[in-house]
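anyone else get weird line breaks when pasting these?? whatever heres mine. first is seq + tokens for prot A
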Amino acid sequence: MPAPTAGAEHVAYNNTVSRFYVENFGCRATQADGAAMERALQERGLTPANGPEDAEVVVLNSCTVTASADQDVRSAIRRIHRENPECRILVTGCYAQRAPQEIAALPGVSAVVGNSHKGVIAQIVCGDELFSNIPKAGALGAPQGRLRDTVTVGAPYPPHPPGFGRHGNEAEIYVGDIFAHTELEGAPVFEAGARTRPNLKVQDGCNNRCSFCIIPAVRGPSRSLKLAEAVREVQALVEAGYREVVVSGINLGRWGRDLPGRPRFEHLVRALLEDTAAEKIRLSSIEPMDWSKELIALMAASARIAKHAHLPLQSGSDRILRLMHRKYRPWHYAGRVQAIRAAMPTAAIGADVMVGFPGENDRDFEETRALVDQLPLTYLHVFSYSSRPGTRSAQMPEAVPPSVIKQRNRILREAAAQKKLAFMRCFVGQTLAAITLNVYEDGCTEALTDNYLKLRLPGRYPANRWITALVRSATGDGLGGVAEEF
């Protein structure tokens, strides 16, 4: 595709950039954002590099949900700048939105682009003259009105002339008011073969105000992809050759609440089943109270929806949930999990659990451990609390000692490992449907079952194929089996 023409200076600059690399940190929504950036850069005529060492431009699509997430990004910046000092490093995503000047001060960073401007990263990289005419709206400000995620919002902060990486050691900062975004544009359609299980982001932002979470401040308000656009995107992915599509969002179960008529998430799922030819739809994480009876019944009745439910728990203590400003109680959560298990006996059911929230005492933790033990969960994502600047919990007293947090984390991880192994052992001797992912160096093939279990198969099988496999073993590393149908 020919590069856009924006004057001789633009063309000359664009010719110096031919290869790019995007590295994503964090959740499925971030991965979907990264895919959109990749497509936009390719549409400008740039070529994906095999790694940051081969690229002229590296885009780091950051996460900021924990302090360690921030550290991962800073470590990547230092490593890339050391190994490829000539490349331009652009940092975008949630960390960039939260602390742009902190990132801009790091050696090697050429530009910091907040979530407010991530839709125009291709223009920034290619030096479009667009940015010389941005209305000035003050520090971190933005003009008001209905703004889409793919248009420019506000002015660079502090304001710089256009031209990514043209100002010596001074990193440019493009950050605007993320709360000025009120609509969500369609997610990208990937080239066939580029991914096995593409993520379609149908929702972004969050209207909840959990006391520990910085995400609403860096992602903005909840906004939904229109139903017709979501259907069109899924069908386009099907036509591109994908066999499974992962539907994702920051607060996925809130899809539709900002659209005319306030449709519910189950309306979207039903439309994807009725109006697309998707062979398999997998739902990403959904808040407990958004698992309605209708959604559970719809999921249980359709073989085209992966039997995989993820419900963030965070804590099994009612007291801690209230301090977290979560909108459910432990008994509400237990009821949803039990309803899912009753409707889908073989479904994977996962949870996020946080340990070490300020003020969490031994009794609170024991309530969490006991709830996890009694519920039919099949895996856990266990996190240690991380104080985030700007959140309410950052001001709370009674910090839990790191040694106690580490011990509680270990206890829950061990419990999770036991639950997962017990769940996997239920399928030894049975046949399961799975989609092939990639081939290991030893010649075996990795696949993922409908109910979210990793499966290792002897032999080489092309990616993105549905197989039926006989399960012969279950270990902490996953299932082992042989393909029966391919």
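and prot B, same format (seq, then tokens)
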Amino acid sequence: MFAFQSSFLIILGLIVGSFLTCVSWRLPRGRSFWQGRSQCPRCKKTIPFFCNIPLFSYIFLKAQCFFCRKKISVRYPLIEGTTALLYFFSGFFFSLIQSNLPWLSGLGVLSLPFFLTLVTLLLLILIIDWEGQIIPDVLVFLGLAISLIMILFSGQEVFFINLLAGFLAATFLLSIYLFTRGRGMGLGDVKLTLLLGLILGPQGILVSLFLAFFTGAIVGIILILVGKGSLKQKIAFGPFLVIGFVLVSFLGRYLLNYFY
């Protein structure tokens, strides 16, 4: 049973990851991701279905386009592989995730599908923000709508305290946005923090924010040291908020014991 579930989650993750490569490219450019087959960005030829198998096509084609033999970007297998790993680990460690987010247990059989949906939305936000420094409102509002419904449906008495935690965390980032006039923080980050606070609750969002600022600072320093960034260069903060959320979801108990 475990082997079947693990295999199913990995395959599902690869398929969803392939879809995310398309959505993350088209959504910021205002293009429909429901219509039109994928094309090679260089020769513009439609990619055949047998060349569009997640991750495996990249390996079998040796990272080259089937038609023009130009190099295929590593973003495709990276997104597909990351999604598959997140799906697998979410299933494998889900009892641990439920202990870190206790209100999920009230959802019963819907708890894992909801968490995977949330992970998918957040991964999509991470990709788009990292590549284009923008967080589409539609993704955040969709996450908020689904999460509000799920928390109410769970029957757990955390709705108001979690909503308050989200608002306070978002207000904190909003103050940074206003103080720096948008140079240190974007409004998309503020809205995203509201969603994360709603899911994580008071203690979880505090730890998540700390981890986001810490990992963001580390990556910023590394980029400067390797000559890929500067002190004046703005770095997307959304990806680090997502990383903080994932760390708290999987390691919340250990992190809370450390911090508190």
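btw re prot B: Residues 98-260 form one domain. The CA atoms of residues 51 and 57 lie 5 Å apart.
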